[in-house]
Amino acid sequence: MAFAVREATPEDDAMLAAFYRQHWLELGVSEADMAEDWRGEFAAFIAEARQRRGLAGFVLVNAGLAIGSACCHLVERRFPPLLRVEARRIGYVWALFVEPKFRGVGGGATLLNACIGHLQKLGAGRVLLHSGPRSRSLYMRRGFSSTDELGLRLTPQNRLK
Ligand SMILES: CC(C)(COP(=O)(O)OP(=O)(O)OC[C@H]1O[C@@H](n2cnc3c(N)ncnc32)[C@H](O)[C@@H]1OP(=O)(O)O)[C@@H](O)C(=O)NCCC(=O)NCCS
Asked: Cα–Cα distance between 60 and 108 in angstroms, integer?
């Protein structure tokens, strides 16, 4: 399948938001858990991150139609720089989505590479992302490996009394 990737412009924001929402629904989030003003929240975030965090969106195009997208930006995770090898600039890839009928032919990997290339140009020394259970092999193929970072969700049930 022939597809191309182009960098998104602000005119694409509504489409990026719709793909992002779709990606969450596929990952098991319910409609009820979506912010009521998800379009507005997305637009505000992306405008700020474009200005201050080097955010770029990429659109996957087939026969002139947008069939997927991904976003990436630099994230702040700074600690005292005692280790020489520690990368100071960290990029994050998120919102990777390809329309179901166009999957399995490398579109996701193409979008991922566009994001990695962009973060590389911004000087990132490390790229992070959060994998879903089914997309793990896509990332591993591109050289990602899991870290020992653990997460704790602070819910009403497990908060300290
Ligand atoms: C993940 C996703 C963008 C991959 O798109 P794609 O164009 O099929 O990607 P590629 O053809 O480059 O790679 C295919 C890989 O995608 C992954 N994949 C396949 N079906 C998937 C699905 N329904 N959901 C997530 N990942 C999937 C697998 O790792 C597959 O590789 P494998 O066949 O060796 O197991 C696409 O499946 C998608 O939009 N899924 C729903 C949203 C999502 O899970 N996004 C990632 C969040 S971390």
From this structure: 9
